[in-house]
Amino acid sequence: MKRTALTEGLTISDNGATATGELVITGLGGIVVAGQGKLFDVNFRIAAQAAPGAKATNTFTSVNLHDSLGNPVSVNDASIAVFTVANTYFPGDVDGDGVLSQADFTLVLKLAVGQRPATAREIAAGDLNGNGIIDKDDAYLILQMLEGQSPNPK
Q1: Paired residues of 14 in beta bridges
Q2: Largest Cα–Cα distance of the chain, in whole Å?
Q3: pLDDT digit string, tens, across residues 12-65
Q4: d(Cα 148, Cα 5) in Å, to the nearest integer?
Q5: What percent of the chain has pLDDT over 90?
Q6: Nearest to 65 by CA among 38, 83, 95
């Protein structure tokens, strides 16, 4: 789970290591932040035997948010996420080692300046701005992720 500006001050726990179909995220503390935005980016691995091209849907079964006084806060939990099994890479993990690191940033820089052509898998993981190629903007977005910020495509 990757924090955003809205959750950087929270004490967060989750059952990700033992979850069997339901991820439970809880948080306490933090600071008051006005406005709206996303609370988390959730990255996860799927079973190795999952067939490429298979699709699955994630939904929220329960979302509860309270302000600093304990009053309920309205939350739009109607979002449904559909994911497709594509490869072992996740957004930003351009080298496919399962970890977002400086090595991914360095590789994206090399690909962006044409040191060699990017593979289809590298593009799937590294084209964060969605323009079909790996460029300097993707490198910037990976740098934001490494610094703990949510990437903001231009």
Answers
A1: 25
A2: 55
A3: 777 777 877 777 777 776 666 666 666 666 666 667 777 766 777 777 777 777
A4: 9
A5: 21
A6: 38
The per-residue DSSP string of 23-76 comes to: --EEEEE-----S----EE------TTPPTT-EEEEE-S----B-TTS-B----
The length of the chain in residues reads 154
Q: Which of 45, 153, 21 is nearest to 93 (CA)?
A: 45
Q: Which amino acid is at 31?
A: I
How confident is the model over 101-119, as pLDDT tens digits? 999 999 999 999 999 999 9
| Phi–psi pair at 58, nearest 5 degrees | -110, 135
- What would you report as the CA-atom Rg of the chain, rounded to the nearest whole angstrom? 17
- What is the residue type of 92? G
Q: How far apart are the first and last CA of the chain?
A: 23
Task: State the pTM of this model.
Answer: 0.48
Written as one letter, the residue type at 94 is V
Measure the CA–CA gap between 38 and 36, rounded to whole angstroms: 7
Query: What is the C-alpha separation between 135 and 128, in angstroms, rounded?
Result: 9
Domain 89-154 has CATH 3.30.160.70: no
pLDDT score of 35: 63
What residue ranges do the domains of the chain occupy?
1-86, 89-154
